Amino acid sequence: MTLTTRFAPSPTGPLHLGHAFSALLAWDMAERAGGQFLLRIEDIDQSRARTHWEEQIYDDLRWLGLSWPEPVMRQSDRQSAYDTALDHLWNLGLLYPCTCNRKDIAAAASAPQEGAPLLGPDGIVYPGTCRPLSDLDMSKRSERPRGIPLRLNMAAATKQAAASLSGGVACHFVEDGHGLCQETGHITRTTDQMVQTIGDVVLSRRDMGTSYHLSVVVDDADQNITHVVRGADLFDATPIHVLLQLLLGLPTPVYHHHDLIRDDAGKRLAKRDDARAIAKYRQDGLSPADIRKIVGL
Ligand code: GLU
Ligand code: ZN
Fold it and tell me: Where does this protein have coiled-coil stretches (predicted)?
């Protein structure tokens, strides 16, 4: 299989140094292996995605010397693929509707008997208010509801996954970069770890009918991505992705999480940090080689 990497930006602001680092790493990895580099526009959040940012992404990446096959995959065109995956998980009895808002969740998670609220990859670990109390009788289940958030029942999902893996683990993947705490190599998570530190994540949001986790998994599989290169801030979400791959019968790529580019004060660069926008460096007369030097490539 051809080594295939991708860069998957969200067109919600200018590309900054951190994005350039990610894109160049993925590009270099494909180049070295005689493989393929793909681009994907992650624009499921239509309230924040803007066409002019998308245009600027293409422009900045070309300026950096990157190229990719057309047409570019855009998540806003792919709802039917996401629906198929959600239907599959719904039919496995692993999703349930949730109408809690942020305030409800914060209140339930900080109830005295709960202890301090735990933070997972998506914020507070969901306290389970809407989770069905007993296993739902599949025959009584109707069609998957639309227009309402759907959560993954993590206990049920990991139990199902663990049944097909050995060693009592619920997920396993190979990390050839590292996470925020330098995790690397063969990474495993048990059912208990996933329930306690991640919990019932939302897989279909009310406003978009999908979620980052669901879309990224379906898209990486459809683009035959063999190596996912991205920032270490997404390492903690990776067990969710690997679990979904198992449940959906999709292959698990190799993951390569990289250091985050920080500013001179050691602070993580935010998208709003326009001073670090590639466009700004271009205006100031820097070259693509200068950008490579700045990010340490
Ligand atoms: N779209 C995500 C971002 O802009 C990247 C997702 C990924 O690489 O998995 O941060
Ligand atoms: Zn709820």
Answer: none
